[in-house]
Design goal:
By secondary structure, the chain is an alpha/beta fold. It is built from 10 helices and 12 strands.
């Protein structure tokens, strides 16, 4: 009997619905359950064919445990090795190489020095930075946001250079990005599962949290095609099995704003009944598909085209 497990935190709708859906549709030889860990011993295989990871970004113990499970052959969704290395500044640079429109972006060193460093640690960093060149490139208003991390935490809209310097000082040890503001006519959040299934959801980030999926945007056929292309290209390059991409549409062009959400919101109360049904059904079917092809003792992770091309060159 092969097992599909889901590892999660404070969620109370999606894990239960996912497990029920897998067990209702998987047929003989497969079962789904909540992951339970009572020991973590190096080199010992876990008995899960597939694990859906929804929480290791917040719990380092889980991330380390999942890497060991993956080494022994568990198909972890999403790949814990790549997730550990991924961040938004690199993602933006990769998107540019894929010819996917993204906002102009600059990386900013943390305002405060990290622990156990002093002035000598920064001898390769010229300070002050060339602020005029940065501001000229990005423009104002702009958004300042962490270079890594998900959601809308610690995201600031800055009007001018004076506000920039004031807010940057408040970010303390965070490494931030300064990003061009895309004044959008429409905005979409898009699920991507398995690098092949896309769900385009109208999304209004200016609404209160509970009402953000209540947006009146209606994409044209051409826009749907452009967004699907960007979503699939990004997720295949990054190697994410389950992710969301946020796209802001300006003058008919979808700009990829945020596409590093490997534990995306899937709560029934926020995403709405139709989106919840789609994501539950689609991820359950994909997890079953992965479980059927999984083999213990082999690498069953998804590696993006960026990594695979680099490995092939060597």
């Amino acid at each position: 009997m092969k097992k599909i497990g889901i590892l999660f935190g404070q969620e109370n709708s999606f894990p239960q619905a996912f497990t029920e859906r897998v067990n209702r549709t998987c047929g003989p030889g497969l079962t789904a359950e909540f992951v339970m860990i009572d020991k973590a011993l190096q080199g010992e295989p876990e008995d899960y064919a597939v694990i859906i990871d929804r929480i290791s970004q917040d719990v380092p113990f889980y991330r380390a445990w999942l890497k060991n499970a993956a080494l022994e052959g568990t198909a972890v969704i999403n790949n814990p090795f790549w997730w550990s290395a991924d961040e938004k500044y690199f993602n933006n640079a990769l998107a540019q190489h894929l010819d996917i429109p993204v906002p102009r972006t600059a990386l900013l060193p943390s305002f405060e020095q990290p622990p156990d460093t002093d002035a000598r640690s920064f001898r390769n960093l010229r300070y002050p930075l060339d602020w005029e060149a940065i501001f000229s490139r990005i423009g104002f208003p702009a958004y300042m946001k962490p270079f890594a991390g998900g959601g809308w935490k610690n995201v600031y809209r800055v009007q001018d250079r004076e506000e920039f310097f004031r807010i940057h000082a408040e970010t303390q040890l965070e490494v931030m990005m300064l990003q061009e503001e895309i004044v959008f006519e429409e905005y979409y959040r898009c699920y991507c599962i398995g690098g092949k299934h896309v769900r385009i959801m109208p999304y209004e980030p200016r609404n209160p949290q509970a009402d953000r999926y209540k947006a009146g945007f209606q994409p044209t056929r051409e826009l749907i095609s452009a967004m699907e292309h960007s979503v699939l290209e990004l997720n295949r390059a990054l190697g994410y099995d389950f992710n969301t991409v946020e796209l802001a549409v300006r003058n008919g062009v979808p700009y990829a704003i945020d596409f590093c959400n490997p534990a995306p919101d899937a709560d029934a109360a926020s995403v709405g009944a139709d989106n919840f049904e789609w994501v539950t059904d689609t991820l359950a079917a994909y997890a079953i598909e992965r479980a059927k092809t999984q083999q213990f003792g082999k690498d069953n992770l998804t590696w993006g085209t960026f990594i695979r091309k680099a490995a092939h060159q060597h």
